[in-house]
Amino acid sequence: MPPYASVQLEEGRGNLWGEATAWVQAYFDRAGFRLPDGSGGIPDHFSLELLFLQHLTASEAGALERGAEEEAAALREVRQYFLQQHLLRWAEPFLERVEAAAEADFYPTFCALARRLLESEAEYIAGAASRSPW
Amino acid sequence: MLINRREFLRMGAALSAVGSLWAAGALNVARARELQSELAHGWKDFSPITGLARTPVPSACWQCVTRCSIIGYVENERLVKIEGHPDATRNRGKICAKGQAGVNQVYDPDRVLYPLRRVGARGEGKWKRISWDEALTELAERLGKLREEGQPEKFMFHYGRMKASSSKLIKSVFLPTYGTGTIGNHTSICEGGKWTGQELTWGAHYDNWDFENTQYVLNFGSNVLEAHTNHIPEAERLIRMISTGRTRMVTFDVRLSNTAARSDEWQPIRPGTDLAVVLAMCNVIMSEELYRTFGEEFLDFVKANAGANASREEKIRTLASHLGQYSPEWAEKESGVAADDIRRIAREVATHHPAAIISYRGAVAHYRGAETERAIQMLAALTGNIDNPGGRCKAVAPSWHYSHGPEDKPESRKLDILDGFDGQVAFPTHHVSNQIFNMIRDGSKGRPEVYLWYCYQPVYSNGDCKANEAVLKDESLLPFTVCSSPFYDESAALADMILPDATYLERWDWEDMVNPSQFAEYYIRQPMVEPLGEARDLADVFCELAERMGMPLGFDSKEEFVRMSCEMTPGVREAGGFDYMREKGVWHDPDAKPRYYSYREKIPAKELAADGVILDEATGVYWNWKKSKAHSEAEAQHKGYSAIPKAYEGYVGQRIGDQVYRGFPPDKLNKSGYFELYSELMAEAGFNPLPTYEPIPEHQDLKDDQLILTTYKVNVQTHSRTQNCKWLSEIYHENPAWLNPATAQTLGVRNGESVRLRSSLGELETPVRVTPAVAPGVIAISNHCGHWQYGRYASGKLSPWGGEDPEAARAIPAYFKGIWWEGNHGVHPNWLIPNRPDPDQRRTALDGYGGRTRTRSKRGLTRSALTTAEEARGSSRLYGLLANVFWSEPDESLLQQLASREVRALLEEQWCRPCPPRSLASTEPARARARALAMEFTRLFVGPGQARASVCLRPA
Asked: Engineering a disulfide at A22: which of A67, B238, B670, B851 sits with its beta carbon 3.0 to 4.6 angstroms away?
């Protein structure tokens, strides 16, 4: 169950450093997000993608607290795009595979938590889209 | 009952921030480093079973021409592991997969272990084991006879790979002592065009790329991160520069190689049109006067006009006017690269100084490849990136001293079959090896009576395999053939006699590959284990053969030759000579400084006044006519430097203004000491003296169903010498042809389907992989697979004795069992590629790689969609918590945090049945739970690519 997008997007049998990895790498580059030291350097790891979102949302919270609405909106746009174009496409099948293979209840618990979080994000994106002027 | 999204996120916000992932990551690395520290230093290894130390043997690799320094570990006289030599300044402890799989070369169960003599028809596969005495008796008799009859040239020696001491012993001592100059190589199917382009411009071949000091890498068709003549030493430096963000890299390639993928920018380009792009870039640099900042000063050393004394301004005028015809818009039409990109990249490379402008087969291994290299040299010159820190440098290699053998060698005689047919190639400075079989078939220049090849695969490596087989099989063309190889490959199968060569892990050498750090490193190769069976290094065989023919070489083995060199070579000798090198494997002068700007060296008056040195006014070259083929000073003066054969051998210096500089000394052609962009030699041969575009004729007006075939290499195989390595062929054994989706659609081909490719030579059936990683109109087939001999791992076919010999069977470790890929050995493109010197094709244009397409995200959310700061904070904490959970095995502190009231509240409120999960609520001590969960984590998530696998290296 390698927790990488490029593997999971192809039924769990894709290659490391696949097309999706290149996409994530390019996207992280463009967003100015650098992987933490010691992270192994493969950017489409589930945790690194979550970490990216952690940063986006933390920055967004900071921006909102400062009243920097435009900055917050820009960050939100990035998050929305990343989720929609990428993470939401592979997270669910991945989480299902983890749940099916798990023996202890630990990881299924957190798979459920992750699912809930991502569902709420999807909800939000759908809402945003329906409200979008386009 | 699910609470709504807002409430959910607010609960998240109540979480305390979970320990940062940074810290967790750093912690894991620290742990792994600690475990490895002892082993990472090198020189030490242990058996995981017995815990006993293994014996380290420093040596040098031979899996590819890079020849990295290595350390092999020997356990119970068996070589069990190879790693990079930690003290080597070239590869700095690193080696590639091929290097590590070298172990497989020694223990290949299909190895040739005894001298063999053919019984039955040539190529029938029936062999008789003979003794070395029988083999040498027959060889001495045949070769001795030719020599006595005064036709030693009828002994042809043909090598594919032979370097350093092996080359010196065989090519500079044994063969000249014997008297034959009929010595073939393989460079014309490698990068011969590149070398000729360099010899025409800066006089010698081999460019080193000083990545460590560069700001910008502009790459035309080199796959330097996967396969290169100095692969690991360069790749290691380059990838470090890229990954630390200190260097920007742009790659032009027809295929998304891993080098292109790791570049900041990949520019797909139509095959064979790099020359157009390079010329247009030079045009931009001249017309926008971008050369002024970094390139202008170097122009003093450049020849851009006829004659020897043009001023800087004259040179600028000539170049600007010649290049004016090559606009970026014109180049876009030729190459498919956008004119704006050409302009932008030209400006980038001219202003990001220093820049390493690099090139390899993508740019040079086709029609007018030499011209492309000349143009790339021009681009580097105009941007001031020649032989400077961070640029394209003249390579530095060690200068070993060695025994030259007997002093009275006969004048060598040779068959004129090495340089192609008359008029075929203008400057065969590295021979035309792919025409040799054609010339033998033709016969008008004579044929060898004894044809012996070494570390070479004439049948497989050259184009037109069918014709190669036919020549090698034909006893009327080649009456007696001998193959020296450790393996039973496609060519060995057609020999009359096979001499079992030692593998590189069983033999001696001193080695001399260049150091990317621009100072010389001396290193050696030594046996890690005794040669298996009766295998013998061919150089040792030649030493004995020389004895038997009554022409002793003055040393009786390669080991002695290497020992003598270690005692003769200044520096190595003082460091401790042979004993030192045996113990350490590598040596460099601790005071050595990187060498740059060698052309600026001024020639002392004393050298100019030496006996025989004269000035050639036409070129401004000072040269010693006595070292040339001139018969008298009068003749030398009268005919001049350019017209006297081998005048370049007397080159001393170049007059520039009122100074004489070392300049760019020629080593194969009578070229001046200028960096020649304007080449009188090219003009004489009927070409434009300045780099000029000419399209590839065969690529014009292609029909929809006509494709351009491009070949390439992957990182775990060499072209023809590693497919017998199980560990490598297990990774890479099939090579479906890459085809762009647009082309596939036009042709009606689906991914995975088999197609039949037809060229003028024949047909080939291969499955297709449809991928946007290759340009439309191109079909890419790697150059590694499709063996029909070379043992079980390469072809699924045993050698005639494979596995039957009890001694060989004993030598086969248990891991040589089971070839799960049997029957899937890929295809070999050389059956389709003609053996012409306007060679094979590469490259192309592409409209975008799926993973990199850019889409604009939607903008302008309405106010009502805005989240509050608290919700954003909640999302953030939840993301952080989950990132930690899925990142590494939980340690006690993470478990404690996860068991906190806030997390449990989140879980309980929501979806957790049973709740709280046992893993968090159990009364078991946290440490035990953490251990159990660590196993669960490993089982679930630790796939390939996780660094902590290294832990198992620890001694028991």
From this structure: B851
d(CA B419, CA B427): 9
Return the number of other C-beta atoms located less than 10 Å from residue B870's C-beta. 16
Owner of token pair 């049997």 = B822
For B510, which DSSP code? E
Q: CA-CA distance, B261 to B248, in Å (whole number)?
A: 13
- E strands, B176-303, are 183-184, 207-209, 216-220, 248-252, 265-267, 302-303
| Partner-chain contact B873 A16, CB within 8 Å | no
Q: What DSSP state is assigned to residue B923?
A: S
Which one of A36, A78, A120 has the shortest CB-CB distance to B25? A36
The rounded distance, in Å, linking the Cα atoms of B886 and B876 is 16
Q: List helix spans (H) across B492-649.
A: 538-548, 558-568, 572-575, 577-584, 605-608, 633-639
State phi, psi for B709 to the nearest 5 degrees: -85, 130
* Residue B48 per-residue DSSP state: T
For the purposes of burial, counting CB atoms within 10 Å of the CB of B119, is it exposed (0-12), middle (13-18) or buried (19 or more)? Answer: exposed
For strands B651-656 and B659-661, give the pairing: antiparallel
What ipTM is given for this predicted complex? Answer: 0.95
Chain B CB contacts of A38 below 8 Å: 25-26, 28-29
Residues of A with CB below 8 A from B941's CB?
Answer: 1-3
Does an H or E element contain B8, and which? helix B5-13
Among the residue ranges B435-449, B461-475, B746-760, B807-821, the one predicted with the least confidence is: B807-821
In this structure, are residues B391 and B251 in contact, taking their beta carbons and an 8 Å threshold?
Answer: no
Alpha carbon distance A102, B940 (integer Å): 7
A20 has a chain B CB within 8 A of its CB: yes
**Least confident span in B18-22, B567-571, B780-784:** B18-22
Question: What pLDDT score was predicted for residue B15?
Answer: 73
- Cβ neighbourhood burial of B432 (10 Å; 0-12, 13-18, 19+): buried
Secondary structure of B312-365 as H, E, C letters: HHHHHHHHHHHHCCCCHHHHHHHHCCCHHHHHHHHHHHHHCCCEEEEECHHHHC
Q: Which of B162, B573, B185 is nearest to B398 (CA)?
A: B573
CA–CA dist B638, B620 (Å, integer): 15
A26 contact residues in B (CB cutoff 8 A)? 851-852
Asked if B886 reaches chain A (Cβ–Cβ under 8 Å), the answer is yes
* Per-residue model confidence as pLDDT tens digits over B837-858: 543 222 222 222 222 222 222 2
Nearest to B876 among A48, A58, A131 (CB): A58
B140 falls in which pLDDT band (50, 70, 90)? very high
Query: Stretch B222-226: mean pLDDT, rounded?
Result: 97
Concatenated DSSP letters for B869-919? HHHHHHHHHHHHHHHHHHHS---HHHHHHHTSHHHHHHHHHTT-SSSS-HH
State how far the Cα of B239 lies from the Cα of B234, in Å rounded to an integer.
9
Express each pLDDT in B84-139 by its tens digit: 999 999 999 999 999 999 999 998 878 898 899 999 899 998 888 889 999 999 99
The pTM (predicted TM-score) of the whole model is 0.75
State whether the Cα torsion B739-B744-B750-B755 is positive or negative: negative
